[in-house]
Design brief:
With 99 residues, the chain is mainly α. 48% of the residues lie in helices and 10% in strands.
């Protein structure tokens, strides 16, 4: 079962009692640190483990980390990089940290 929202203790307890055979729950990495302590203790007592899934919210990255690193380390001006790569000038400034 996958959680895309942080479950409250009561909601989690109802899900677990309705589905006692499920022992692994996938949860978004950001939600794990915000789960209530009693939710975690309840899960531990019932032998339930949480698996951090790689569900990423938002728009996917247009440029890879390698491309970003090349732009950051480039000795050329932002305008030259923009013309060479066909990237908007504003994006080059953003990647270089010029804002």
């Amino acid at each position: 079962m996958i959680f895309k929202e942080r479950p409250s203790f009561d909601m989690f307890k109802a899900i677990v009692t309705a589905n006692p055979k499920i022992k692994q729950y996938r949860i978004s990495p950001g939600f794990i640190k915000y789960l209530a302590q009693r939710t975690l203790l309840f899960a531990e007592d019932n032998g339930i483990t949480f698996i951090s899934s790689n569900i990423r919210q938002g728009r996917p990255d247009k440029y890879t980390n390698a491309e970003r690193q090349q732009i950051k380390n480039s000795k050329r001006t932002a305008k030259e990089i923009s013309k060479m790569r066909g990237i908007p000038l504003r994006t080059v400034y953003f990647i270089k940290g010029g804002y």
